[in-house]
């Protein structure tokens, strides 16, 4: 009797979009649902996290192109800037090793395996203590304290698209809408966020270590 072979479908298209707005620090000692007016509709605190980040580059080629490659708690990630600026950032996130390798090769011309750190050089290494709250069921409010004495926060929205490939125009349009929603959210709850210009963790790290880099 002939064996019946079942066709295994190819992996579905997958795209993860992330939009964030940084803030200098929280304006309240502890974030609570009713800490200001108007209160958050809902607010859920997530467990405290300890994150070890190691960032990689090659003579600033990646950061100059708006790409950040890191190993977070042992797992490789890439964030590719698709729009915005330092404070209001729009990224596509890559988590598959093959996709990260292709991104590195496209920008640097280097073909290398993850065992070789994709041919990149360690440019920063630090530990972050992260507090996270989910407000109004979807907005992630994050406060990061780094082990070199720096604090910065961000409000994030994420969207995962599966089953079809988004064009670059569709990605930009969707991330623009996400950024507008974050802006409205932060204006509504402005009591929660301190005024002042935020300084990114990599910028603060290099200033602390007396190094120079194009990374933000």
Provide an overview of this structure.
There is one protein chain. The chain has helices at residues 61-64, 97-108, 168-188, 201-209; strands at residues 14-23, 43-45, 49-57, 67-72, 75-84, 88-94, 121-135, 139-146, 151-162. The chain has an eight-stranded antiparallel beta barrel with strand order 1-6-5-4-3-7-8-9. The chain has one domain: Hypothetical Protein Pfu-838710-001 (Beta Barrel), CATH 2.40.320. It contains four helices and nine strands, in the order βββαβββαβββαα. It is of the alpha+beta class and 216 residues long.
The gyration radius over C-alpha positions equals 19 Å
* Domains (count): 1
Q: Which percent bin holds the helix content?
A: 10-25%
Question: How far is it from the N-terminal to the C-terminal residue, by CA?
Answer: 63 Å
Number of beta strands: 9
Strand order of the largest sheet: 1-6-5-4-3-7-8-9
By CATH reckoning, the class would read Mainly Beta
What name is given to the CATH topology?
Hypothetical Protein Pfu-838710-001
Note the overall shape. globular
Organism: Immersiella caudata
InterPro entries: CYTH-like_dom_sf, THTPA, ThTPase_euk
Protein name: CYTH-like domain-containing protein
GO molecular function: magnesium ion binding; thiamine triphosphate phosphatase activity
